[in-house]
Amino acid sequence: MRRETESFNRWKKAKEQELSKLKDQERKRQYQMMRMENHYSKQQNVLKRKVEEAHAINKRLKEALEVQRKVKQHSSEKNTNTENIKDWINQELELLFSVNNAELTLQRLLQDRSDHAVKLEKLKTDKMARESPTYQNDLDELVQNVELRSAQIAQLQREILESDQENRCKSRWQTVRSMADAKTALNIVFEIVGDIHKREIAKNWEYEELIDTCDQQHLKIRQSELQAIALKAEYEQKLAKLQSEYEQDVMDCIEHLRGTNENSNIENTENTWLKRELKMYKERCQALEQEREEAWKNNESANNSKATGHTKTKKSKFTVDENQDPRVVWKDIFSDDSFGADDDNDNDPDWRKTPLYKRTRKTVSVLTDLSKDDVQPLKRSSGGEIKCSCKTNCSTRLCTCRRHKTSCSNCNCQTDICKNRNTKTTEFDYFPDDPRDTTVDDVAKRLKLE
């Protein structure tokens, strides 16, 4: 299995490399086709512009010849003067410029026709080009261009011959018949030459500006090319990194598959042991659940038996000494084992809800508070006298002085409302129901009455 995996990975890697090469070739071919299409479109634009220029030159030459004929007829009918001389010179110069442009265009057309003829012959003799699917289209296009150039050349040659510049150079000055006409003609020629020179200077300046703009554009193009090269290098670097990461992932997967095959037996053994252990734990859980249910039933039966036992009345086994402090007696009663040895009254919900339990807890809490008051140290003056700090009228045994059967003399209580200032009323109790002055029998009787 490992050999098959390795062979499959090698085959996959080789196919991926071939696929990447084919993609690169296809991308290069598309880029080359795009460049060829752009070049072809540029050539078509140049050809179209040249044809339009030749047509415009031919038209202008015809117009110049027609104007020249009209001027010649007009000059033969009227006498020459300054306006006539000026018109005549402008017509002659326009005709001369048109003929010169036609001759230059004729030379360019002849050169283009020769270049296209060379390309046509080369295309016809190239055997490799014949196998191309665009061979016939290229051949037809070149033939059409050569024929178009030939037609334009023939038309321009005919127009140039009609202008008859050689004979016109001989008969041109026949219009100037006097010295005044010659001076006027020279002045007009100088003015026209000056205007032409100004236009030429403006054209030169415009040309220089265009050259500067072109240089700047070339610089931007160069910077863009350098940026494209840098981006391409970065792309290749990232591609190589991704390729290495992909190969590493493939190797990790192979290693994982190897480890999986090697550890399959161990995992099966571990799974079997875990299943057995899980089964054992389930059995133990079921047994514990049964024990819990049995314990719950036993606990419920015990609680029911305790609840029925509390309903029976019990006789008091305690004997109270009259000289003993009642708080100590009650504390002994409620701390005796016979009171709570059989059950837990605090945790028994049936017992806690009874009125007897509430009254008993109230009595115990009162006795506990009184015992805490006895434990607290007394406030005494520097002479050893007892002092109280009551906020009330000192009429109950909560007052320290009244509890110790002394009157309030130099205490911190309020003198205007204090009722323990008179020694005759010191032993008088305003609240005889205070548990401190109540015996055990009185408390028991009051509980029974309640």
Describe this entry's structure for a reader:
The relative contact order is 0.04. It contains 12 helices and no strands. Mean pLDDT is 73; it is low at 310-343, 371-377 and 429-450. It has 450 residues and is an all-alpha fold. The protein is elongated. It has helices spanning 2-77, 82-125, 127-130, 135-163, 165-171, 179-309, 326-335, 337-340, 349-352, 355-375, 400-403, 440-449. It folds into 2 domains: 2-252, no CATH class; 326-449, no CATH class. The chain is 76% helix and 0% strand. The two termini are 94 Å apart.
Offer a few descriptive terms.
mainly alpha, 2 domains, 12 helices, 76% helix, disordered C terminus, ATP binding, Kinesin-like_fam
Walk me through the topology.
Elements: H1 2-77, H2 82-125, H3 127-130, H4 135-163, H5 165-171, H6 179-309, H7 326-335, H8 337-340, H9 349-352, H10 355-375, H11 400-403, H12 440-449
Helix pairs in contact: 1-2, 1-4, 2-4, 2-6, 7-10
Query: In the residues, how many domains can be counted?
Result: 2
What proportion of the residues form beta strands (DSSP E)? under 5%
Compressed to H and E, one letter per element, the order equals: HHHHHHHHHHHH
Number of DSSP strands? 0
Per DSSP, the total helix count is 12
Q: Could you say which structural class the secondary elements and strand pairing correspond to?
A: mainly alpha
Q: CA-to-CA gap between the ends?
A: 94 Å
In which range does the helix fraction lie?
A: over 70%
Gyration radius (Cα, Å) is: 66 Å
Described by strand count, sense and barrel closure, the largest sheet is:
none
Can you tell me the residue ranges where pLDDT is under 50 for at least 5 consecutive residues?
Answer: 310-343, 371-377, 429-450
Which descriptor suits the 3D outline?
elongated
Report the mean per-residue pLDDT as an integer.
73
Keywords: ATP-binding, Coiled coil, Cytoplasm, Nucleotide-binding
GO cellular component, one term: cytoplasm
Main location: cytoplasm
GO molecular function, one term: microtubule motor activity
